[in-house]
Each structure stands twice: as structure tokens, then as C-alpha cells.
Automatic annotation (TrEMBL):
It holds the Pfam family Acetyltransf_1. Coiled coil: none annotated. InterPro entries: Acyl_CoA_acyltransferase, Bact_Acetyltransf, GNAT_dom. The keyword Chloroplast does not apply. The keyword Acyltransferase applies. CDD domains: NAT_SF. Keywords: Acyltransferase, Transferase. This is GNAT family N-acetyltransferase. Residues 152-313 form the N-acetyltransferase domain.
Length: 313
């Protein structure tokens, strides 16, 4: 009952924050998940904790710590910041019974609606940092098509482009690894090669190469609305496109290649009837943050992380 009351109050509060946020549901405890709760006066907080682990050879290991403790949060009442503070204290106690102090392959992670800023100070005080954003761009089907960029030609990638695609993706990974969202691991080139080859061997791969005066210097990888069930629940929309990655060689930065690739991707998504497009980017990346917001995106969810999950007192 307490969980239902918190969920109802949380849903009412979130509905006023961002129209593109999906309606939250009461937590359902199952498997290894644990429900935490806290009260501060008339404010209630509920959190569902889960833990997942990966091997270092998993493709997903590039994007996270090998062990990830995650907390889903619902807050109701007049002081959500105080409620979150109390809930984080409970979570800290829970994590100390599970995780080893100082283990850098163990992270504590939670996502908060980007426009729901209550509790940001408390997250910082508990040692969390905002490391990633799930950004959203609503469809703009009434807009004119993309302008041509002098010298830029965009075409479907083929298996013959594999070495170029791998080099572009590796360059992007190495740059992004500075900002906390990506972990460069031994064998990363092999993981990237296997993933890109899977895309390129499809009948109509949603991988596009940008050539600048005949030189392949950029790439964009897309997931169409029938492939995005894994992330569709994060946004209030029916048909969701996902822009997996956009990479431009350092030699071609500020040449218009990135803008041309983004415009082409949006045209592909519009033709597929996508209501919104989602993508992830690192908060601290000084290139991607201004670039994507200039292309019509805005923050929807902000990912906060503490790595290691448990630090010495």
C-alpha cells in the first residue's frame, strides 16, 4: 500500500515535469530486486534496487562497469529532495552489505528525469556524478529536407566499409572514454568489429557512410522503430527511433559532415514514421553536448553514477 501511495504521488508530480516522460507504475518486486523506502515528514520515497553482471567479453561491457547496482526512484510529497536524500542513505547501507569497497568494476547507477532537478544537490553530496543523458528529438515532419553540404556524399555502408567503420567507431570510443560512460577494455576492437559486421551483413543495413570529397570520414548507425523495444518504455511515444552512434574523423570535424549525417538520419527516421528519436551522449563531452542540442535534441533522462559503488568512509 505504501508503495502504491508513493507511486501515485510520484506520477502526479512527474506529469507536471515533462510531457515526454512515460507514466510511472508502482514497483513490482521480483527475483533479486529489493524494495527500499524512506519517509521525511509528509514526503515518501521508494526505490527498487537491482544488480546485473557482465563478463569482460560482452559487447555491453564497453558501456558500463561489469557489476552494476541500479536504483529506480519514486518520490511523493512536498520535499522530494529530502526524500531522495533519505533513500540514498538507505541504499548506501544496502550496498555496503553487497559490494567491496573501492571496486572500480562495481558501479551504483540511477536515472532521473532531466527536468526533475529536485535532489541534484543530494546526489552530488552522496558522491554521484551526472555522466550520461538520454536525449530526445520530436519528429519535425513539416520541416524542409536537409540542405546539401558541399563536398559531402552520404551512402549506405557495405561490408567493404568494415575497416573504415571500425576505425571511426574506435576513434569515437577512445574520445568518449574520457567522460565516464565508456570503459575501454582489452579486445575492444574485436567487439566493435563483430557488432558492426552484424549490422553490415543485413540486407539493408542502417549504417551510413559520409564521404567528404570522396574520402569516407563519417558514419551514423541507426535503430529503426521495430528494433527499439529495449528503450521504448523511456519515452511517451509510440514509434521510437534510436541513433546508436555518429562518428566523424578528427580530420573532418567542423566540416559539416556531422551535421549532414544527423540531418540524413532524421530524414530516414521521419520516412519510417518515428514520433521521436532518442540517443545517449556523455554529459561532459564538449563536442557532443552542444552538437546534439543544435540538432533539436534536449535532455530527457540524466544518468547518475558512483564508481566504485562503495567508497571508504
Amino acid at each position: 500500500m505504501h508503495n502504491d501511495v508513493t507511486a501515485t504521488g510520484h506520477a502526479a508530480r512527474i506529469a507536471t515535469v515533462d510531457a515526454l516522460l512515460p507514466a510511472p507504475l508502482p514497483f513490482e518486486v521480483g527475483g533479486d530486486s529489493v524494495l527500499l523506502s524512506a519517509e521525511v515528514g509528509d514526503t515518501t520515497a521508494a526505490g527498487l534496487t537491482t544488480c546485473t553482471g557482465l563478463g569482460p567479453d560482452s559487447p555491453q561491457s564497453m558501456w558500463r562497469a561489469l557489476v552494476e547496482h541500479r536504483l529506480e526512484v519514486q518520490l511523493a510529497g512536498p520535499d522530494p529532495a529530502a526524500g531522495l536524500d533519505a533513500l540514498l542513505t538507505r541504499w548506501d547501507e544496502h550496498l555496503r552489505s553487497l559490494a567491496r569497497v573501492g571496486d572500480t568494476e562495481c558501479a551504483a547507477v540511477l536515472s532521473r528525469p532531466s527536468r526533475d532537478t529536485a535532489g541534484a544537490t543530494e546526489l552530488l553530496r552522496h558522491g554521484f556524478a551526472p555522466v550520461g543523458v538520454l536525449a530526445v528529438r520530436p519528429a519535425q515532419r513539416m520541416a524542409a529536407g536537409p540542405d546539401a553540404t558541399p563536398g559531402v556524399c552520404i551512402r549506405h555502408a557495405t561490408p567493404d566499409d568494415l575497416s573504415t567503420a571500425v576505425a571511426l567507431q574506435l576513434e569515437l570510443q577512445r574520445y568518449d572514454a574520457q567522460f565516464g560512460r565508456i570503459t575501454l577494455r582489452p579486445g575492444v576492437e574485436e567487439l566493435i568489429t563483430k557488432e558492426l559486421l552484424h549490422h553490415l551483413e543485413r540486407p539493408e543495413p542502417q549504417v551510413w557512410i559520409a564521404e567528404l570529397y570522396g574520402q569516407p570520414l563519417g558514419m551514423v548507425v541507426l535503430q529503426m522503430p521495430d528494433e527499439t523495444g529495449w528503450i521504448r518504455h523511456r519515452v511517451a511515444a509510440s514509434r521510437v527511433g534510436y541513433l546508436s552512434s555518429l562518428a566523424v574523423s578528427e580530420a573532418a570535424r567542423s566540416s559539416g559532415v556531422g551535421t549532414a549525417l544527423a540531418a540524413h538520419a532524421h530524414q530516414v527516421f521521419d520516412e519510417a514514421g518515428a514520433d521521436v528519436v532518442l540517443l545517449h551522449h556523455a554529459v561532459a563531452n564538449p563536442r557532443s553536448t552542444p552538437f546534439w542540442y543544435a540538432q533539436g535534441y534536449r535532455p530527457l533522462w540524466t544518468g547518475w553514477q558512483r564508481r566504485p559503488a562503495v567508497r571508504s568512509r
